[in-house]
Amino acid sequence: MDWEAILSNTASWLISPETIAYALAALGLAVHFGYGGLLNFGMAGFMALGAYGYAISILTFGLPWWAGILVGCLASVVFAFILGIPTLRLRADYLAIVTIAAAEIVRLLFTTQVFDAVTNSADGLGNYHEGFRAANPFPEGTYGFGPWTYNANGWWVRIFGIGLLIIAALLVWLLMRSPWGRVLKGIREDEDAVRALGKNVFAYKMQALIIGGIFGALGGVVFALPSAVVPSVYVTSLTFFIWTILLLGGAATVFGPILGAVIFWVIMGFLSNVLPAMASSGLLPFMSTTQAATLRFIFVGLALMLIVIFRPQGILGNKKELTFVKQ
Amino acid sequence: MSSNSSSQSPVKTTGLHIGDAAPGVAKVDPIIIADNVTRTFGGLKAVDVEHVEIPRGAITALIGPNGAGKTTLFNLLTGFDKPDTGTWTFDGTRLNGIPAFRVARMGQVRTFQLTKALGLLTVLENMKLGAQKQTGENVFSSLLKPLWRKQEVEIEERAMEILARFKLDTKKDDFAASLSGGQRKLLEMARALMSSPKLVMLDEPMAGVNPALTQSLLDHILNLKTEGMSVLFVEHDMHMVRHIADWVIVMAEGRIVAEGDPETVMQDAAVIDAYLGSHQDVDLGVVTGRISGEKTAEVEDLLAEIDAEVGLTDSSAYIADTPTDDTAKEEDTK
Ligand SMILES: Nc1ncnc2c1ncn2[C@@H]1O[C@H](COP(=O)(O)OP(=O)(O)OP(=O)(O)O)[C@@H](O)[C@H]1O
Ligand SMILES: [Mg+2]
User: Fold this and answer.
1) Is-contact A213 A28, C-beta < 8 A?
2) Between chains, do B121 and A323 touch, taking CB under 8 Å as contact?
3) CA–CA separation, A48 vs A63, rounded Å?
4) Which residue of B129, B180, B185, B198 to mutate against A (max A Cβ within 10 Å)?
5) Whole-prediction pTM value?
6) pLDDT by residue (tens digit) across B233-287?
7) Domain total of chain B
8) Could you tell me if B196 lies within 8 Å of chain A, comparing CB atoms?
9) CA 20 to 30 Å from B140, out of A276, B127, B150, B212?
């Protein structure tokens, strides 16, 4: 096995656009679930709206790239309202059911033949990069060091994504140290108690759903920036990867989702390199290289189970919180 | 607050009503006036109140057997539940259909029978949450700390002041979940006071609180009156009702069956019938084990009757089998 190639490939995942995109979405989910207690199982839907909103704005409506990002965010705000208005007054579990179904509806709407002219249905969208790349402030050429050597476009996508991530993390930090964050955390603990203290619980939950949803949409945009919009990406398993990341890093933390995304992708990157290599060198009998590559998803499922059982507060979560079992 | 206020008998507010004390009697200065409030669950009429007025500036006790509809009435009056029929006003404002958070903002705050401390918030954060009109609670201004820093400091000072009164100041940085059941009751009450309410509604504030703490809770409640607030509280322990209430309203099967000052209400035939059985002479504090007292023959008698009653399928439950009374029962066995 070529260990150098494997490790180099693995290291490159540290700042890959996928990592940044997942970190953004996980940060959104931290606002939803970690701080607000909202069981959003439709993050894939928010991400799809961000990605498609961006691509369609450029391809169909000829908008500039930055306006495309705004459209993606706006779409996620509308989606948050559609999900939130009927469900946020109900018990938490209803939001879970509605979001998981709504995200699937969103994906199917983008996949169906009916809107083929705009969405290109199952084939997805591409070739919308011109505007974004024209705005690239970095000089032509390929630079960097070691595994992190990219061309100008590669750097532009990564730096732009990291910029968005820093802004999002800063926003979450500012919100959660404020009285607004205190109300939201109170709602997570017991919304009736917060209501009895004169707070408009519905409005807070709606605001949290919107803020987290926008982060999800931005994650979708960053995911789409370097390559293409492929509808089969935005399936329910994407939502569960984001959940894995959130629980891994620590749900009610600012840096947990980011750390979780990095660990998740580095491990995924490592396994997707090492497992096929092991299969082809005969270390994994009865398995083809493709079969070996999909083995990593089994590991993700296992990891999710182990986290929830042995470290439910995540890597960065407050251990003290764990002392108290919630009702 | 002074700890020796408990040893003396608290000053009772009198002259609250107009005319004879009967169910639905008019009050001189009512803070809540409710008419025809009904609420049914399936076939069960949980609340069926024709007319009731809660006096201002006094401590009113709402008593009645388990399932009488006391909590349901609380929920209706505070907007946590919607009635089938009925209208009511708080401080002259009609409250029907007003959501719970607005009711609270108007100055009518409540606590819950099953304590709702916000476990993974610290005691101090719990308190701060109770303060009203916070600039930093707006999603946009929350981002700019200079906009709310000053107010936050003021709120914290006030919170510490109230916490000190409730002897919780040393716990300010602990998670509320780490408090004992009785301390949580105190915290919930202290938190409600952060909003400077006009009317405080306490649903069984003493349930599960040990006798020593009960005394300080009673003092706190009496203090609210001194500070000009009105209090409406639900309580099963007649000893306490007699001790602090200026007015008592008795509910049974959803209706108000009697009203009056504590001394006379306990003599009322309807109350004795609905609530006390034929043992009105027995201090129920002794029966439930909250008050250490001599177990007279009558107490033993009543306990035996309760046991027999619980064994039967009879729905008219007794005071002693309130679920929240578990701790009181434990006291008994010690
Ligand atoms: N959400 C509900 N659904 C169905 N029935 C209910 C509901 N809430 C209350 N009830 C019923 O309404 C009646 C009154 O209940 P409520 O909780 O108001 O009694 P309570 O007077 O507070 O009793 P306790 O002293 O035990 O607290 C009970 O018979 C109860 O079973
Ligand atoms: Mg009750």
Assistant:
1) yes
2) no
3) 19
4) B129
5) 0.85
6) 998 888 888 889 999 999 988 899 888 888 888 777 666 666 655 444 555 445 4
7) 2
8) no
9) B127
